[in-house]
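Possible race condition, two jobs.
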Amino acid sequence: MDLQKMAALGAQAAAGGIVAAWFGFLYVIRPVPTGGIDHALWQVAAYSTVVLFGLLALVHLYFAAQLKRGADSIRG
């Protein structure tokens, strides 16, 4: 297995890890009966952070697709 294919697999794994980190972040900041933020602020935090985490995951998937196509598809 050549280096580009392994790098593509790593980028795909990173994208999955970023999505898992977002779910972990949502779990940590969830509203609890003993305190913390209320449900409305939790939703605002969830919606605003999905953009950040989602873009990071999409960029990693784009890099993985680029690496799978081979060196000819990478410009620069």
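Job #2 (started ~2 s after job #1):
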Amino acid sequence: MADELKILSPNAPVSQVSPAVNWVPGKIRKLSEIKAGHRVKLMAIQLADPARAQLYAQGLTENKKARVIHNDHRGRVMLKLKGEIYLLGRRETSKIQVREYLPSP
């Protein structure tokens, strides 16, 4: 239980979180596949128009950088984007494509 709470902490260093299985830097993946602690760049939101428009209105658009706070691996993901926390369901996370974000040194 203590490990789960550590992962939910938004300030947990990525080094404490194990990397995703078969993680290939630069490869585009579904948001539902990304483990907690990883920083990602949103590449494509492939939802139908009403759902996509709702995400756009809330500020969740392509080319934004976010951090995965929690992933229950059933499809539900918590993202932190510019100080805001988004809780996305299975339908959304399977249709959002992301790429690992590595800040330039």
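The first strand starts at residue 29 and ends at 30.
Logs attached separately.
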